[in-house]
Amino acid sequence: MFPWSLTPAQQELLDWAVDFANSEIEPYAAQADAEGRLPSDVQARFHDSGVATRFLERSSGDDFVTSACLLAEQLSYSCAAFASHLMLPVFFNRLVLTLLSGAEREQFLQRCREEAVVTSFAASEAAAGSDLLALETTATRTADGYVLRGRKEYSSNLRAAHYVIVVARTGPEKVRATDAMSWFLVPTDAPGVVIGERWPTFGLRALDISPLELNDVEVPAGYMLGGEGRGLPMMGDSLSMSRTGIAALGVGMARRARDVVMEHGRRRRIYGDKLNRMQDYRFRISEMEKRIAAARALVWVSARQADCGEAAGKEASVAKLYSGEMVMDVTTAASGMLGSIGYTGQSPIEKLLRDARHVAIVEGPEPTHKELIFAHMLRHGAY
Fold it and tell me: Which of 209, 229, 249 is the last residue of a domain?
């Protein structure tokens, strides 16, 4: 399935992911979706395996993004909610350790080594979703740091999080300037942090997505990430990692949908013959395979470019945009190919179809990434 060879370490990671998903995700995925909650100890089991800690710090020949995307793809094959719950902290903890310094960094690193640390990300607001220049959450400078005030709407894993990265305005109020915002690492047990009632969601129903209120939350200066006024540039540079990972989720979900319809075609008989002997059915699966291969290639291009230390913002947007469209098309086609079964909980397709929309929406819907791609073309040229 891969267009080029994996390294021994990547193959070992992929084999581990298959085993972990089969034992720790697959048996619980349907129940977690129905109940709207994940097992409370799955993060601890993931951490205890040693996989999460291997990604904490950059090393020689580091392939963090590529390996993390391999892992995300395989986990999402079993359940995208589990995969998001487990992998988002992997990306965000790595991001924190890249941007944090001094004693605060060492304390955070040590805690990540000792326990399953969940870090969330809070940027979207009611009036500032993709338009971050309209941000209203403020960070006011004090003698010892900053005081944060405001409300965020949609943060994944917030109820399980130990920390949350908060994007707040440090520039003049209502000024739409690219240097008017900054990032802060906020402990979720800090005074003034209030996690609101979780939102019901169309897909990934087991994943906690909740609002966050910041009521005069005091943050020491050492917990600013990346420097004051660097918030918007960091959004494009740093989140290309997680956006590529989200695209990988779409590949995993589409692979699962393809396999379901292939197995259905082997078993189902129609007009006296197996369904997969019908040319239309075979061609539809071939179309799925073509789209999956293209999406995976885009994920790998973006991941490898990031691992080489090159800017991958455009590549991440292309991968996420295409994967979001692809997984919706594949799961929609799969639902129709199974008929009534594909519309009910008798098959994983119903859940996959609901979960697929997450890939296109989270961390910027389709129009946002089209704008990002075109802006990059204007500045740097096309391929």
Answer: 229
Count Cα atoms within 13 angstroms, Cβ side, for 306.
33
**Structural domain boundaries enclosing 72:** 8-114
The predicted pLDDT at position 158 comes to: 96
pTM of the model: 0.93
**Cα separation values, 52 from 82, 113, 160, 248, 377, Å:** 14, 9, 16, 17, 35
Per-chain mean pLDDT for the chain = 92
- Tokens 């470019």 belong to residue: 305
Mean pLDDT is highest, among 60-64, 123-127, 163-167, for 163-167
**Which residues pair with residue 163 across a beta bridge?**
119, 187
Residues 201 and 128 in one domain: yes
Q: Are 245 and 72 in contact (CB under 8 A)?
A: yes
The answer, yes or no, to whether residue 1 has pLDDT greater than 50, is no
pLDDT attached to residue 293 = 96
What total number of domains does the chain contain?
A: 3
